[in-house]
Every structure is written in C-alpha cells, then in structure tokens.
Design brief:
By secondary structure, this protein is of the alpha+beta class. It folds into three domains: about 5-75 and about 145-335, Bira Bifunctional Protein, Domain 2 (BirA Bifunctional Protein, domain 2, 2-Layer Sandwich), CATH 3.30.930; about 85-140, Herpes Virus-1 (2-Layer Sandwich), CATH 3.30.40; about 360-450, Anticodon-binding domain (Rossmann fold, 3-Layer(aba) Sandwich), CATH 3.40.50. The chain has 14 helices and 23 strands. It has helices at about 5-15, 40-55, 75-80, 80-85, 110, 165-170, 170-180, 225-240, 290-300, 325-335, 375-385, 395-405, 415-420, 445-450, and strands spanning about 20, 35, 60-65, 85-90, 100, 140, 145, 155-160, 185-195, 210-220, 250-255, 265-275, 275-290, 305, 310-315, 315-325, 335-340, 345-350, 360-365, 390, 410-415, 425-430, 435-440. The strands form seven sheets. The chain has a seven-stranded mixed β-sheet. Strand 22 and strand 23 form a beta hairpin. The structure holds zinc ion (ZN). The site of zinc ion has 8 residues, from loops.
Length: about 450
C-alpha cells in the first residue's frame, strides 16, 4: 500500500525537485528562513497570480498597491504593534532553550490566540526538552528592528513590517483620490512580511520571513457584517476552485477572548494538515474602523470618505481577508500529493490544479536517438512562448514521466518515430495517464484549451 505523506517525505521532495531549500544551507541554514527553487518560485508566482486574478482582475471594486516594507515607525505605534505585537516566552534554566509559553499549553487554538494576553505560568510545567525549570513568561516583541541611515540611535529605529495591511491603511486617502472609488471598495496587496517568531517551525508553515496576500475592503458602517459573510464565502470558494478537497477545509469562528485588539469578529479558514491537524490558512477579520481612526489620530490627517448622498463624512469599516503565500504553498502541495501503485511500482504524483502547476507541459523525445532529438527540440521551441515548459531526454521515458508526475506537470508531449512520418505527437495526461495522438500543428491550441479548464 502507498504510504502516508509525512513531513520528512515532503521536505525531501521539495528539496529533490527544486521547490524549497533551506536558506543559506551551505552555512548550516538559518531558522525560519527558506529559499524557493526553480519549481517553487513558479508555484508561488502561480498562487499569487491566481489570487490577484480572483480578487483584483475579476472584481469591479478592488484595486492593488505595493507599499514599502520599511515604513515610518509611527505606523506601528498607531497600529498597536509596538505595544501589543508580542508573544509570551519562557527560557529553560537548564538547557537554555527558549519556548513560546502558549505552545507549552495544551490545545492548538489556544496557542494561536495569545497575542498580548498573559499566560498563567502555573500551567506551564517543565522544559519539554530536558525537564528543567522554566523562567516566568516575558513578553517578546515579534517585529524585526533595524536602523535607517548611518546612525544607530533611537531616532533612526525602524521595523520590517509584520503585516502588509498597514501599508494599505496609510494609503487609503491616496488611493481614494487617485482612482475615485466609491464605497464599498477594496485595496489588495501581495508582499513580504517579517515576524521574529520565538519558535518557527513545521517547514514553511511558520516562517520568520513570509509573504502575505491581503485585502482591506472598506464598507459603510452598518453593512460590515453582511460584507464579512460575503468575503468568508468568496474566499472559501477560492480554495475549493483551486482544487483543495472540501473535507479538508473548515471554517472556525474565533472565540471572544482570542480576538485581536482591532477585531469585532474573525473567522479562519482552516486546513487539516497531516502534522498539525486543522490550522489556519486564511483569516477573515472585521477590523471595524480601528485602523483608519488610529492613523487619523496619530497622523493628524483626516482619513474619511465623503458620502455624497448623505452629504457627510464617514469612517469606513474594514473587512480583511488575509492569507499567507507560503502557507498556501504548503497547503496546495500537501493536498495535491498522492502515492499510487502503478504496474508494481509506486508513483508519486502532485495533482496540482492546472493553473498552479510550475511546469505546464514537458517535451520528451522517446529516446536520445539522433533522429528524435531535433524534432523534439523544435516542438519545445514552438511551445516555449506560450507555456511554462521543460525538456527532458535523460533516462528512460518511464522515469521521465515519473519525474514530471512528481512536480505536477499536467501534460507530457512525446515525440517518437511515428512523429517523423505523420507529424503527430502523443499527449499524456498526468492524472489519468491516458495518451492521445495529436498533430503538432494543433498542439498550441489544444494545450491552451486543456490548461484553461
Ligand atoms: Zn531545557
């Protein structure tokens, strides 16, 4: 029987096939940072593009921005991150290891919800590594600090942004006046964010450097609850439409005591990970008017919307769907992974959605025969402007199909001796493994149609 997917198998596949490498591996790596290889960067791009298409391109009411990672530090005072973006940590007096206090408590959901909330030290117990005594919990701010300019003093302190959202809030007025949107409307952004997690882990599940896909959707106060519902449904369907199995997804309502300081209501979309059970892959929060009011207060600028019908200024409420690209990457990989018995051997196949697969079509000559290589190269050249492709003529055709299955390539195009006579090639389908002969002249059109489905 084919085996279950373990974290070791996944990490090994990601390294072997060029999806994810440990950052600066030749120096022993660095905790919580990962590099994306040739397949990984493409999968990541495809995820971001699918998101952008769904939330910006196809919608009449959302526009995009790309704000700087380093912002005026007043932003983080206003947002509350300087005061409250902290996790309680404890040190072991024996082995000196450091832990997130909440992670030593039972229950994952409790663990996800502690920002700013004190944890009773009595419940913590002993060091899970060595059994040693733990210090009392201390709050540890998760923002990375740096200095802007040549002088390292208090006046030059700045932070790597811990979320992309604030870049949207502080540009609210710029966007409003430059594109003249009417409420309700949204601003979307994809970009890097940084959190100095005390204990990063589970591969790319919790990174210190990661990428976010966030929308701040501004609505009239009073319509926020309805819009919240609409976005929960919209975002849940996005995951389904990209092939995630429904039985692996769940919506989870945050309990009152785990809500962030800015949130009226938050619902998480969770995925059932083989190593962590159900865990958040996207959060959809009702951030109320908290952020716009705070930035207005701290900056002295008016951040309101003028309602022409009512003739009054309003501070919009905000619905925020927020997902992590890296965690989405992990989710799509895990959900696509399958092992099957095919003719007495185990086939590993990534059933990635066609729009996400890093390679869309692979061109494979049946062998390295000198009569087959030139026409196969010509077919490759023909396809390259239209699709992400790969050419492979090393080892047996069976081995090459397996390699393409393992990176999720939906179609393999094979050039054989019949091709020399009839100008037909074989298209092999990744999932059904069925093969069909098609004329080279129709190949671009046919692959285009298949990949659109
Ligand atoms: Zn210890």
């Amino acid at each position: 029987m084919p085996g279950e997917l373990t974290m070791d198998k996944l990490v090994s596949l990601c390294k072997r096939r060029g999806f994810v490498f440990q950052s600066s591996e030749v120096y022993g790596g660095i905790g919580g940072f990962w590099d994306y290889g040739p397949m990984g960067v493409q999968l990541k791009e495809n995820i971001k593009r699918a998101w952008w298409k769904a939330v910006v391109q196809e919608r009449p009411d959302v526009v995009g921005i790309d704000a700087a990672i380093v912002m005026n530090p007043r932003v983080w005072e206003a947002s509350g991150h300087i005061d409250t973006f902290a996790d309680p940590m404890v040190d072991c007096k024996g082995c000196k290891r450091r832990f997130r206090a909440d992670e030593l408590l039972e229950g994952k959901h409790e663990a996800e919800s502690v920002h700013g909330r004190p944890i009773a030290e009595a419940k913590l117990g002993a060091c899970p590594e060595c059994g040693g005594e733990l210090t009392a919990p201390r709050m540890f701010n998760l923002m990375f600090r740096t200095y802007v300019g040549p002088v390292e003093d208090d006046a030059s302190v700045a932070y790597l942004r811990p979320e992309t959202a604030q870049g949207i809030f502080v540009n609210f007025d710029n966007v409003l006046t430059s594109v003249r949107k009417k409420l309700p409307f949204g601003i979307a952004q994809v970009g890097k964010a940084f959190r100095n997690e005390i204990t990063p882990g589970n591969f790319i599940f919790r990174d210190r450097e990661f990428e976010q896909m966030e929308i701040e959707f501004f609505v009239h106060p009073g319509t926020d609850e309805e819009w919240h519902e609409r976005w929960i449904e919209e975002r849940f369907n996005w995951w389904l439409n990209l092939g995630i199995r429904k039985r692996k997804l769940e919506l989870r309502e945050h309990a009152a005591e785990e809500l962030s300081h800015y949130s009226k209501r938050t619902v998480d979309i969770e995925y059932e990970f083989p190593f962590a059970g159900f865990a958040e892959i996207e959060g959809i929060a009702n951030r109320t008017d908290f952020d716009l009011r705070r930035h207005a207060e701290y900056s002295g600028r008016e951040l309101t919307y003028f309602d022409e019908e009512k003739g009054e200024h309003v501070v919009p409420y905000v619905i925020e769907p927020s997902a992590g690209v890296d965690r989405a990457f992990l989710t799509f990989l895990i959900d696509a992974y399958a092992e099957e018995e095919v003719r007495d051997e185990t086939r590993v196949v990534l059933r990635l959605h066609r729009s996400l697969a890093p390679v869309q079509a692979a061109v494979l000559p049946l062998s390295r025969n000198e009569r087959l290589v030139p026409p196969a190269q010509q077919v490759w050249e023909l396809l390259r402007p239209h699709f992400m492709t790969q050419y492979d003529d090393a080892q047996s055709i069976g081995r090459r199909y397996r390699r393409q299955d393992e990176i999720g390539t939906p179609y393999c195009v094979t050039v054989d001796f019949d091709t020399l006579k009839d100008q037909d090639v074989t298209i092999r389908d990744r999932d059904s493994m069925e093969q069909a002969r098609v004329p080279i002249a129709n190949l671009i059109k046919l692959l285009g149609e298949k990949l659109q489905k």
